[in-house]
Specification:
mainly alpha; 0% strand
């Protein structure tokens, strides 16, 4: 049994090279493949949520660290002003 060109165009993933091929078993394999891929998609979604949460925490930590840097810079400016004041008054 040869496959017609129209069938090949409609179903390219079912290129049947042997007329004895069991389409029912192929269908079962495809169904199993769909379930596996759907589970994989769920796993990827869960991974994305974990990464999003980690990114959120890192952004918060970065904000905190930047705040600390700004506080230290302010302290340095205050120290410089105090030192200048002491030089002027001594």
């Amino acid at each position: 049994m040869k496959k017609s060109k129209a069938t090949k165009k409609k179903f390219p993933s079912l290129s049947v090279s042997s007329p004895n091929r069991n389409l029912a078993s192929t269908k079962v394999l495809r169904e199993v493949g769909i379930k596996d891929l759907e589970n994989y998609i769920k796993k990827l979604g869960a991974n994305i949520k974990v990464f999003e949460e980690a990114i959120k925490k890192e952004k918060l930590e970065m904000k905190r660290a930047k705040g600390m840097v700004n506080a230290l810079k302010t302290d340095i400016k205050t120290i410089d002003q105090i030192q200048k004041w002491h030089k002027l008054n001594n």
